[in-house]
């Protein structure tokens, strides 16, 4: 992993040959489809805070202007 990253990061990807995409919308949709096919859950919300816990991750969210909290084994944050 890159120096300076928090030890909370366990893995990442490095794709030196993939510096851009001609269609970011299509790429994002295809990645989201794959997450769903692989059993993941997709939601759109504003992540206000992420905290590791003994059982995974606690994410404080704001969905449609309402505060919410999500507990998960793992999360992917994409912006």
Would you mind describing this structure in some detail?
Strand 1 and strand 2 form a beta hairpin. It contains one helix and three strands, in the order αβββ. With 79 residues, it is α+β, with helices and mostly antiparallel strands.
Summarize the amount of helix as a percent range.
10-25%
Strand order of the largest sheet: 1-2-3
How many beta-strand runs? 3
Give the N-terminus to C-terminus distance in angstroms. Answer: 20 Å
- Please report the number of helical segments: 1
Detail the poorly predicted runs.
none
Strand content: 25-35%
Shape by Cα distribution: globular
Given the helix and strand composition, which structural class is it? alpha+beta
The sequence of SSEs as H and E is HEEE
Key attributes of the depicted protein:
single chain; 79 residues; alpha+beta; 1 helix; 18% helix
Give a brief outline of the structure.
This protein is α+β, with helices and mostly antiparallel strands and 79 residues long. The protein has one helix at residues 24-37, and strands at 46-53, 56-63, 66-72.
């Amino acid at each position: 992993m890159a120096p300076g990253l928090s030890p909370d990061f366990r893995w990442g990807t490095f794709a030196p040959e993939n510096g851009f995409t001609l269609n970011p919308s299509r790429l994002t949709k295809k990645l989201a489809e794959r997450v769903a096919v692989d059993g993941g859950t997709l939601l759109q919300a504003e992540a206000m805070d992420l905290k590791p816990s003994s059982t995974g991750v606690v994410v404080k969210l704001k969905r449609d202007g309402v505060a919410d909290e999500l507990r998960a084994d793992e999360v992917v944050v994409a912006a």
